[in-house]
Design goal:
Layout (H helix, E strand, L loop, with lengths): L7 H6 L6 H6 L38 H13 L11 H13 L3 E5 L2 H11 L7 E4 L5 H8 L4 E4 L2 E2 L4 E2 L1 H6 L5 E5 L10 H10 L3 E5 L7 E2 L2 E2 L6 E5 L12 E5 L2 H11 L20 H10 L3 H18 L6 E3 L13 E6 L9 H10 L17 H6 L2 H6 L2 H9 L4 H9 E5 H4 L4 H16 L8
Helix pairs in contact: 3-10, 4-10, 5-6, 5-9, 11-18
The chain binds pyridoxal-5'-phosphate.
Length: 452
């Protein structure tokens, strides 16, 4: 027998001294062992899916009050934030800052715009380097290259999918000005280590909390640990308005600079002071966001409760290992719920086969980021630009390209499977049990995966 294999019965047997309730939760689902003593057929091979004609909680969150708010904004004729400092955007900024215990908030038109505003407000530009993760949305890198700074990508810890603090420190040069930690899945990075590195090398920290609404680490909400924290309210996010973003922070002068930058360089007093694109959030978006706030803490708590339940159910199952969390993690934003797929426990079936099988069971796992940003065409594009060739030596750009060797990121991309969690993790216990049931059904049928 393959010693890596762990039958579900053994997996259940290994659980040790759980409470009666826990043991009940681990009971073998009745569908799995059929009346004939066999194992139910995979839905991908013509069997009955674990989950059929049952919908997941809908996302984005919509209620009647929110719709009324949008109608009210429409009728008011106040559609731009500059028409009323206490309109929906101004009010949302105050409420959002309060939610995080931050002193200030500046709303923007997207998470990318929030990050871009921070880069510009901190005076980072041509010739400067910013260290970030290759395992992120292009918006993170976009915010650096639109200012013609150089995004330096640190390799990952392949089990947390977050950049590795040791590699971050190794990549610091005299030109490094800032670090942008990215909280992938809304789960904290190793922030104690990152903040210590930033302090030692006097670097600014812009937290990319675009997936991490309300998550906390060592008593602090993500977004309030570094100098500035950025959020996305894109339609799929846990607080959403279609396209939107926000910056939070406690340094009044820096936050005023952020306001000015996102207001095409124009201060609240109307002085045209600096460089900045027009990134203002409009009053309709502010209205939708105000409508998202009621119940936000409850939804956040439910996602965390369901993720903890899934993590506990999978605790001793080596085939799918939940995203590693660093010491200090208290809660997560859970934009996605992510796991590492270990094919050696699934009869060496490629991840694509597992995904095909589990999707046929009615559970929408995907691969998320297919390849790290170091493998995308923007790298060669910027290396060919006159502005980069003028600002960085040929030797520096050559080394930059050579350093785009990030094997742990490649490994993470090849093994990670994830569920979009904004709506899914708001499901009932039955919904969440379906996820485990489907995983175990695919596991029981692992010898059939290579037929797919
Ligand atoms: C980690 C991360 N950073 C940045 C962004 C960019 O945010 P937006 O899409 O609002 O511009 C996103 C959005 O998906 C994200 O997930």
């Amino acid at each position: 027998m393959d010693t890596n294999d762990l039958s579900r019965r053994k997996f259940i047997g290994k659980l040790g001294a759980g409470s009666a309730a826990m043991m009940a939760a681990y009971a073998i689902p009745s569908y799995s062992i059929s009346a004939g003593g066999g194992i139910d057929k995979l839905a991908a091979l013509g069997g009955t899916p674990v989950r059929k004609n049952v919908s997941w909680p809908k996302w984005p969150y919509i209620d009647e009050k929110m719709v009324e708010g949008i109608v009210k904004t429409t009728r008011s004729g106040i559609w731009s934030r500059i028409d009323d400092p206490d309109g929906t955007v101004g009010t949302f900024e105050k409420e959002y800052a309060k939610l995080f215990g931050a002193s200030y908030c500046v709303a923007t038109g997207s998470g990318t715009q929030a990050l871009s505003t921070c880069v510009e407000a901190l005076g980072i530009g041509p010739g400067d380097e910013v260290i970030t993760s290759p395992y992120t949305d292009m918006g993170t890198v976009s915010a650096i290259i639109t200012s013609r700074a150089l995004p330096v990508l640190a390799d990952l810890d392949a089990d947390s999918y977050q950049f590795d603090a040791a590699d971050v420190e190794q990549k610091i040069t005299p030109n490094t000005k800032a670090i942008i930690p990215v909280y992938i899945g809304g789960v904290p990075c190793d922030m104690d280590a990152i903040m210590a590195i930033a302090k030692k090398h006097r670097l600014k920290v812009i937290e990319d909390s675009c997936q991490a609404h309300l998550a906390s680490y060592n008593g602090k909400k993500l977004g309030t640990i570094g100098d500035l924290g950025c959020f996305s309210f894109q339609a799929s996010k846990q607080i959403a308005c279609g396209e939107g973003g926000a910056i939070i922070g406690n340094d009044q002068a820096l936050m005023e600079q952020c306001y000015t930058v996102q207001n095409h360089g124009t201060s609240r007093e109307g002085k045209h002071e600096t460089i900045g694109a027009k990134y203002r959030m409009n009053e309709f978006e502010g209205s939708v966001l105000m409508g998202q706030l009621p119940g936000v803490k409850e939804r956040f708590a439910l996602r965390n409760e369901n993720a903890s339940y899934l993590n506990a159910r999978l605790k001793d199952f080596p085939g799918l290992v939940p995203q590693k969390r660093y010491v200090g993690t208290e809660s997560a934003g859970l934009y996605i719920y992510a796991l590492t797929y270990h094919k050696e426990h699934f009869n060496n079936a490629d991840r694509s086969k597992f995904l095909k099988a589990i999707n046929a069971e009615g559970i929408g796992f995907g691969g998320y980021i297919e390849q790290g940003l170091h493998r995308e065409p923007w790298v060669d594009h910027i290396l060919g630009l006159r502005s980069y060739k003028e600002m960085y030596t040929a030797k520096r750009l050559k080394k930059y390209k050579e350093d785009m060797h990030l094997p742990q990121c490649d490994l993470a991309c090849s093994r990670m499977v994830s569920l979009w969690a904004s709506g899914t993790l708001l499901g009932s216990r039955r919904d969440i049990d379906h996820i485990i049931d489907a995983i175990m059904k695919v596991y029981d049928n692992r010898d059939k995966l290579n037929l797919l």
